[in-house]
Each structure stands twice: as structure tokens, then as C-alpha cells.
């Protein structure tokens, strides 16, 4: 093997070590975020919370998450993703750890703790997109983004499996102690990565380096002005903003309410609700990665990037809406599970749609762009999660919730079809 080939292979390995570490950080992020969707069932029983109060607890996380999203995107662009993600890991893990203590003190203290935890987690994706933009060439971006995003379903599956077991055997408080501690341990490994790998591009082949040329400088070294006017005025960015909102409506609905849906409607146990809720996330994992590999192969084969992104994004949103409408007819646990698997699984086509599009249209500023679009993408965590609790109290069922989710998805598909693009709008 030639020295050039060995260097290219070494560069590939280094890139995917970074991607896998990012995916593990996302995994930790989501086990800390999802555990309360199961733990809140015994918490509500202990403290006598109504559906509306549960919704407030679940949605409070997203207040801090949304408020910190653009500032952490700016910070990632200024100081780079490695240090920011490590500090964020410590912060959100600590607030996860103290959640039971906060709940025992007062309801207000619990809400404040969840808000601060959300602010810590806000830094995760801007930091990760900062790294992906500077390490991954174009033909690998869909797969890199999808590998990172698989931390969402895998973290969710793990949390749903383990949380119910911890609650039934050790009490709901143990969930936060165990997961918060795990995050602090992982932070140690993340900082070892920082010291082991200097902030330079790996040794890769000339062709790959040419693809990375616009963004191959050391993270944070070049202080180029952030083009806020261009980013906030271009219709392709607004397509991303609106679709991030629409896509996350389903994501946060499932994260927060899926175990309660199986518990309340299908009358399953707490552990059974968590276990049954795993199926949709397995579907998301499988379909999301398959979509990313397919998209990269299509682009490498000469397919137009815009056409690929539109196919994946619109297919995911329309398919998800169809399964939500079908769920209105679900009368058995098996049928309900099938519909939820379809809604979340088909929706994962967006892994190769909007989720990677930040790297297509503004690679140098993908971190800031993610901060902008995910600010809108966090609104469903506040509005949608809380509104679901209110709708449950008002209607006594999930019909209105599923109709609303289907409508939101269809609006997103229409906007993406009109304004979405895979062309770079700014270097």
C-alpha cells in the first residue's frame, strides 16, 4: 500500500472516530432528555400532578434549550466544537444528577433545574455540526450526520429500556443519579479526545482535501464575520427553519408522550409502556441510516443534491403524516405500535433531508445555522409538549394531537418542496 493510500485510510479512520464520539455524546444527551418521559409517571403519582402540570415539567427543559441555542451556535463558531461539547456534557449531566433533589425542594426549583439542563444540552448539536463541517467531505456528509443522529433513537431506546427497570427496582430518583453520573464519566473520555487529537484536519487524500478546502482551517482560528443578514433573509434558510420546527414536532411528541400514550390508552404497566415505546425508535434508527447511505450513493452517482434532499424530506414528512392519520383508527396495542413505528420510522428519511442540509448550503457556518434553525425546532418542545397535556385534559384522548401532528408535517413538506435547496448559498 502506498504512503498516500495509507494516509487516506488513516484520515478516514480519524474522521469516523470523531463522528462516533459525537454520536456517543448525542446518545448521552438523549438518555438524559428521555428518561423523564418514563420517570414522570411515578413522579406525577407521587406529587399529584395533572396532565397540564406534567406538560409544564416536560416542556420546561426546552425553554433553556431554545434560549441558549443561538448563543451556543455562535460560541461553537468562535471557539470550536471540541471544548464546547465537553463543557456542555458536564453542565447538563450535573443538572440531570440533581433533578430529584430539586423536585424535593419545590416545583419551582424543579422547573429551574430542567431549564438549566436544557441550556446545557443546547450546545451539543452546534458543537457537533462545527466538527462535522470541518472534518467531513461532501460525499460522506449524509452518513456522518446520520451516524450522529442515531444517538437519538439509540439513546431513547436505552433510556426507555433502563428507566422503567430502574423505577420499578430502585425508585424514580435512581434514574437521574445513574444517567447524570454516566454523562460525567463520558466527559472525561471526551476531554481525552481533545488532548489526543489536535485541532487540525487529518491527513487525507488530495481529492478529499479539495472538497474541504473552503473550511479546512483550524476551528476558531479564522474569525470571519458571521453573515447574519444572508442567513436570515434567504428562503432556503427559512425552508430549514420551518422544516426543523415541523420535523421536531413529531420528535418531541414521541419523546415526551409515547410512554404515556401506551400507558393511558393501551393500559400497559410503566415498564411495559417504556418497553413498547422502543419499537418506533428502532424503526427510526434503521430507516434513518438506510436513507443516509442511499442519499450519499445517489449524490456520488451524480444525482442533483437538491432533488435528493427534497425526495428524502418530503417523503419523510408526508409518510409520517399518513401514519398519524392511520393511528386514529388504532384500537389494539399492536395496531397502535405499527402506526407509531411508521410515523417515526418513515419520518427518519429526514436524516438525509433537512438534517444534513445545513452542511450543504452553509458549511462554514453550519454551527450557527443549526443554532438558528433549532431555535425554531425547539418550539415544539415547549408548545407541542405542553399543548398535548392541555389537549389531553380537554379532550380525554390523543385524536386532536395526532391530527395536529399530521397537519404540521404536511405544511413542512409543502414549504420544503417550494424553497428547499442543496446548493451552497454562502461559503
From TrEMBL:
It comes from the Bacteria. InterPro entries: MFS, MFS_dom, MFS_Na/Anion_cotransporter, MFS_trans_sf, SLC17A9-like. This is ACS family MFS transporter. Keywords: Membrane, Transmembrane, Transmembrane helix. It is a multi-pass membrane protein. It is found in: Membrane. Gene3D superfamilies: MFS general substrate transporter like domains. Its main location: membrane. The chain crosses the membrane at residues 16-36, 56-76, 83-105, 111-132, 144-163, 175-194, 236-258, 270-291, 311-328, 334-356, 368-392, 398-419. Residues 18-424 form the Major facilitator superfamily (MFS) profile domain. PANTHER family: FI19708P1-RELATED (PTHR11662:SF399), SOLUTE CARRIER FAMILY 17 (PTHR11662).
Amino acid at each position: 500500500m502506498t504512503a498516500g493510500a495509507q494516509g487516506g485510510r488513516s484520515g478516514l479512520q480519524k474522521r469516523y472516530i470523531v463522528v462516533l464520539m459525537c454520536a456517543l455524546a448525542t446518545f448521552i444527551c438523549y438518555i438524559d432528555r428521555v428518561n423523564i418521559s418514563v420517570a414522570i409517571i411515578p413522579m406525577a403519582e407521587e406529587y399529584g400532578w395533572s396532565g397540564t402540570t406534567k406538560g409544564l415539567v416536560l416542556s420546561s427543559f426546552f425553554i433553556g434549550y431554545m434560549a441558549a441555542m443561538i448563543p451556543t451556535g455562535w460560541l461553537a463558531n468562535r471557539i470550536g466544537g471540541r471544548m464546547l461539547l465537553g463543557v456542555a456534557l458536564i453542565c447538563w449531566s450535573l443538572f440531570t444528577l440533581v433533578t430529584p433533589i430539586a423536585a424535593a425542594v419545590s416545583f419551582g426549583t424543579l422547573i429551574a433545574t430542567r431549564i438549566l439542563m436544557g441550556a446545557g444540552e443546547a450546545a451539543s448539536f452546534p458543537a457537533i455540526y462545527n466538527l462535522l463541517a470541518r472534518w467531513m467531505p461532501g460525499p460522506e456528509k449524509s452518513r456522518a450526520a446520520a451516524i450522529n443522529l442515531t444517538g437519538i433513537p439509540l439513546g431513547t431506546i436505552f433510556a426507555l429500556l433502563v428507566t422503567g427497570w430502574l423505577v420499578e427496582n430502585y425508585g424514580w430518583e435512581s434514574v437521574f443519579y445513574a444517567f447524570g453520573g454516566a454523562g460525567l464519566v463520558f466527559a472525561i473520555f471526551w476531554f481525552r479526545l481533545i488532548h489526543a487529537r489536535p485541532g487540525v484536519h487529518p491527513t487525507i487524500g488530495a481529492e478529499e482535501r479539495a472538497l474541504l478546502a473552503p473550511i479546512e482551517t483550524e476551528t476558531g482560528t479564522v474569525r470571519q464575520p458571521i453573515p447574519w443578514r444572508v442567513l436570515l433573509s434567504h428562503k432556503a434558510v427559512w425552508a430549514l427553519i420551518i422544516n426543523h420546527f415541523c420535523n421536531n414536532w413529531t420528535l418531541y411528541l414521541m419523546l415526551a408522550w409515547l410512554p404515556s400514550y401506551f400507558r393511558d390508552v393501551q393500559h400497559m404497566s410503566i415498564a411495559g409502556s417504556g418497553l413498547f415505546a422502543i419499537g418506533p425508535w428502532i424503526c427510526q434508527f434503521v430507516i434513518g441510516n438506510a436513507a443516509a447511505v442511499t442519499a450519499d450513493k445517489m449524490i456520488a452517482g451524480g444525482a442533483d443534491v437538491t432533488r435528493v434532499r427534497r425526495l428524502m424530506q418530503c417523503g419523510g414528512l408526508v409518510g409520517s403524516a399518513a401514519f398519524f392519520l392511520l393511528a386514529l383508527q388504532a384500537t389494539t396495542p399492536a395496531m397502535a405500535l405499527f402506526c407509531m413505528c411508521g410515523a417515526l420510522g418513515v419520518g427518519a428519511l429526514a436524516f438525509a433531508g433537512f438534517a444534513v442540509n445545513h452542511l450543504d448550503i452553509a458549511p462554514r457556518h453550519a454551527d450557527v445555522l443549526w443554532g438558528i434553525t433549532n431555535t425554531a425546532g425547539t418550539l415544539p418542545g415547549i408548545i407541542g409538549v405542553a399543548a398535548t397535556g392541555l389537549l389531553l385534559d380537554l379532550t380525554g384522548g390523543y385524536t386532536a394531537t395526532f391530527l395536529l401532528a399530521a397537519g404540521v408535517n404536511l405544511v413542512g413538506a409543502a414549504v420544503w418542496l417550494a424553497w428547499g435547496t442543496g446548493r451552497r448559498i454562502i461559503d
